């Protein structure tokens, strides 16, 4: 009869020679979740041992697929395991680096007496994760609702089910000195510009930091300008958007442990485009996009304009509006810049507090706090009710963008405009606008122009930027991507066909 027993982790294997493999295994055995067990084959009397991390492997696979063949199968060497173990994925090696990586990724190590320097590794990873949930940040009224999760394999599955092509390539890299995070680069071979893929691959390979725990670490380290407040890669939780952009010719980056996927190259106008736009009529989608752009413009310039006009240019205010404006400020003891900063910072504090608190409490604090604070501030005479309206509308307008990261940027750049408006009025706002415009023009995303199709101007890309034209007119892929197949379909094939009786 074979005996199967667990050995204590603090007692090294007496039969193992003091080589580098023993040193590696001794280091691993310091962990309480590392299991070392030994047994004897019932037919050949071969003594073997198995070792694994109990928190990383699936015990059912070990009990049903690995142990029975080892205990009852006919084998004498590690090579024989290739034939008796049904998984068919036995990996035999003596490379210490590979052994360490395999064990830490959910493999089971098998050693046989007499082959101390060589081991067999069998994959038995435990599936630890959560079920696919609905979109949270990028919620859409129409269209698919599935969202990415923290598992890289599940996320790739969500994309492959939407693009069932052999040309869809997934290249896997490992980044992070300590975390050794799995990263996948996805693109469509024969369609995506290989320069964009090479640029993405090179920048990720050059990352040399200790930890990568989320996709935003990748975004920060591979961006062309690390000092820019503008994001240079799109982060999304929507698998349909990723699939659509891959077909457009973009490159996707999936990071294990992150429910957000990075897309690039991208442009500034892409942050105002929602996937739901493509599910609506082109007239409605164009109106919504223009509304978003207007909302962001209002959010940035509303409060600075209030400060600039009241400080330097009161003659601009119409006579009918001057009386209510003066009456609203007659009890305010501060200059316009002080009351504007007070309200803007108060809004930011409420927004940050609502985001950090639990969901139900945060919503209550945001609503009640905003109403109570706004009413109390106006009644106390610390600010005018006109400015309160501007600040509130500006805060709401900032959230019209479908990509959350650009919303944070809009919140930040309002303050430089406020400062320049206080220093030089409308001229200061023009100076600040020119500064940000010049900064946006020199930005790039994976080497591609960030302000395309404005600079450089491309008429074809205008059709799906500020506006969305009819589907038949969008037969070309975006020019800035420089794809290998610039034509998506023949324009005549997408035109509506006449009825027989016409």
Structural commentary:
- With 502 residues, the chain is an alpha+beta fold.
- It folds into four domains: 5-123, no CATH class; 152-266, no CATH class; 281-449, no CATH class; 459-494, no CATH class.
- It has helices at residues 20-28, 59-72, 81-84, 96-103, 152-160, 194-205, 215-222, 239-248, 282-312, 319-329, 336-356, 359-379, 385-397, 404-442, 459-462; strands at residues 5-6, 34-40, 47-53, 91-93, 107-112, 119-123, 168-175, 181-188, 234-236, 251-255, 261-264, 444-445, 448-449.
- The strands form three sheets. A six-stranded antiparallel sheet has the order 1-2-3-5-6-4, sandwiched between helices. A five-stranded antiparallel sheet has the order 7-8-10-11-9, with helices on both faces. Strands 12-13 form a two-stranded antiparallel ribbon.
- Helix 9 (282-312) runs antiparallel to helix 13 (385-397) and helix 11 packs across helix 13 (385-397).
- The radius of gyration is 30 Å and the shape is elongated.
- The protein starts with a strand and ends in a 40-residue tail after the last helix.
- The model is unreliable at 1-18 (pLDDT under 50).
Strand content: 5-15%
DSSP, total strands: 13
Round the Cα radius of gyration to an integer and report it. 30 Å
Please report the distance between the alpha carbons of the first and last residues: 87 Å
| Overall 3D form | elongated
Unreliable stretches, pLDDT < 50, 5 or more residues? 1-18
Number of discrete helical segments: 15
Give the strand order, joined by hyphens, for the main sheet: 1-2-3-5-6-4
